[in-house]
Amino acid sequence: MKLMKLFSILVMTGILNVVCLLAMGQEGNGVLRGRISDETKQTLPGATIYIDELKNGVVSDVNGFYIFSKIPVGKYHLTVSYVGYETVTLEISVKAGQTIEKDVVLKGDRQQLEEVEVGGTFQGYQRAVNYQKSSQNLRNVVSADQVGRFPDANIGDAMKRISGINVQYDQGEARFGQIRGTSPDFSSVTVNGNRLPSAEGDIRNVQLDLIPADMIQTIVVNKVVTADMDADAIGGSVNLVTKSAPAKRILNASVGTGWNFISERMQVNAALTYGDNFWNNKLGMILSASYQNSPIGSDNIEFVWKEDDGNVYLEESQVRQYFVQRERQSYSASLGYRFNLNHRIDFKGIYNRRKDWENRFRQSIKDINEEGLAKKVVFQTKGGTPDNKNARLELQQTMDFALNGEHLFRTTLLNWNVSYAQASEKRPNERYMGYVKEKVQFTPDLSDLRKPYMVAKNEADMLLGAAAGYELDELTEQQEDIRETDFKGSLNLNVPVRIGYETGNLKFGAKVVAKSKKRDLEFYEYESLNEDFDQESFRHLKDQTRSDFYAGNYRAGNFVTKQYLGHLDLNNASLFEKKEVPDELGGIFKAKETVSSGFVRYDQDITRRLNATVGIRLENTHLKYRGKKLEIPAKGEGGDPTLTDTPEITDSYLNVLPSVLLKYDATKSLIFRLSYTNTIARPKYYDLVPHVSISRKDDEVSLGNPELKATLSHNVDFSAEYFFPTFGMVSAGVYYKRINDFIVDQRWIDADYEGTQYGKVIKPVNAGKADLIGVEFSWQRDFGFIAPALRYFGLYANYTYTHSKITDFRLEREDSEGNKLENEDLPLAGSPEHIANVSLYFERKGLNVRLSYNFASDFIDEFGGNPFEDRYYDKVNYLDLNTSYTFAKHYTVFAEANNLLNQPLRYYQGRKDLTAQAEYYGVKLNVGFKVNF
Prior knowledge:
The protein has about 950 residues and is mainly beta. It is built from 8 helices and 49 strands. The chain has a domain at about 1-115: Immunoglobulin-like (Sandwich), CATH 2.60.40.
């Protein structure tokens, strides 16, 4: 309560101060503002604008705008500098109570430009590197021009090339990002500064494969956050800046097609952007659209291993064949209206939609003993209804609409923002149909544990049909509807403060974010009233085995076709008996979260070279949630499981989060940064709900934990960056994080719950504390410094080393003999030790060729009840190739190849040679044509 009172006093005092300043006025001061651009009217973010007489400077924002809001009356010299451009010095005259607009156009530095090939890569790089160089906090910036030089379909694929970032894949595309050796749960993704909600029910992470790469103007990865930014960014915060109204009319279009070797079908890609200014440049507008339709798929094998007296054997084996059609649409709009020099409003909106029509054909060999006798073999078809192409439709959508204003009252700058965001996922009429045969004898072939084989003693046992004794085991249909909505409102004020000859900046404000999330489920199982149903269905079988199955010499087998499953009239009471299954409904929940925050940030130029930023942020989190709990009758009592509502639980906590950042410009080219910050990661909504849910398909029990605490981290960062006089930079940094109360999902394999044995029991827990230390190196430069003839060739490379160690470990773990384990030397989950990216490129006279390699070492993904049950994400090696040729200034043809090494998504259990999952996606090819005006 004391802290809440302090928070209220802090905000109210700040507002009263500003009101007093507004009332007093600043008659002896004037305002200078404008926009920095080049000769082609491309805006230049990160330009340094300095007033020599006042020893005060500012930096242009992501759209090239700058402002000095408190300048004493008089004449001054204004110096504007930008790497790769000629420095400009202008004389300005400031009058009392007036706002002066001074737009500055910079010319390329001829001496520097003679040493590089000027093109899209160079211009995009210059804008990104200047924005990065001039920022107070440590960040990496990637422009749309740079993204376009790589064969990246979505934002996640583009992020994997940034220093310190690793991505995790789903269906061959990057889905979640890991920053600086932390799990995806420890990072946030924002659009224009507003955090996006998640379309999935049991996580907070944003699905990066929802957003096409060509919809974003700039990707900004903030590895150090300041007090005016949301604090839920232990690893970092990824800000996706959508396209803003340009300084000139633009029209960009692209169209392409490609080929997928698993689906053996063509893909279609198209994008369009139009922007212009109207009404004497008072109204700016830009509209963008993107469409991608990609038939894809994957070849998958999965295994569960058991250990007995040091010997391992297979307990479960699966072969899965996926066929997916992925359609991605995205639309964005940006409108900006300037009333006058001191007042403007902007609207930005983006809508993303991804449809996945998926069919999965899964062969499962379950409960295998050491002699190779399987308790059962199941052939399962996953599909949907005819109106969804007889496939399981997963429809994920995100949208973010924001209205913000900027108002200058004499010397005080006021910014406000109101926004609405929503994310949703729908899975209508998801159907499963499976047939089972019990007690099948196999001969395990474990000569290669990475690719083990189960060879049936009688081959006929693996042929689905009546002759082999298969019976219907499962016929189900489920509906899932997930929705998260966010309402946000914020108000910030900037007040310039003069101390002697130096000018500082006081910024403070408040923000309220109201979130709500819910998941609704329906699950029914069906029993046919036709005694000949099995015989009839066996007339609709198809072999789903691909002849060149990438995962190995495995045979998926025969399955009931998706068409037959889709056309079953399950709701016809004369054909099927319908029964609700409460076991599967424990995932239903509702949650509300309100985060009220306030901050104070003060920036001060201590000297012309040394700048300090200090701040404090207060975030109060209020939660309310409820869900479902499955009540299982005790042994001997009889009866069926029942589903009951959990009591409504409320919780509230306040975090006080200080920060200190120092930036020292040793020279114009050499910059040092040092910072301390305090950040958090809140538990997932669903993890807090005291639910009990059982998945029959996966033989898995999921448990909630309302005792979970938010994770807190103390962060120290030090970095040095050197910017070459022409094209390129080199940087190095070290970072340390002390992470308290981190959360992991503990797994128990073949565990007992309420007297019943399950294949897996999962519960989230606060697992203890951890220390994380890392080192980053980055290099980008052409080879012109070696010899002038090599200036068309260049290298972009970065490497990150991260070491983490868990202390105060609270997981219940045993060794193979059942003894309690203590003081284990374990790393954080989701923390790869090594990440490396290398890109070799050639660019001359419109021709651009780029070969890119990405590597990440293996890391622990989930902790089990003992080390043998731990699950690891295996190391990855990706190789991509992109070529393009631009002619007549406006036209570009391109060809791309992704995943040339056919890198699988691979997990292993306990040991590197024990494959838990291996999923292959094949090589993807894409060619197309772009027009830019």
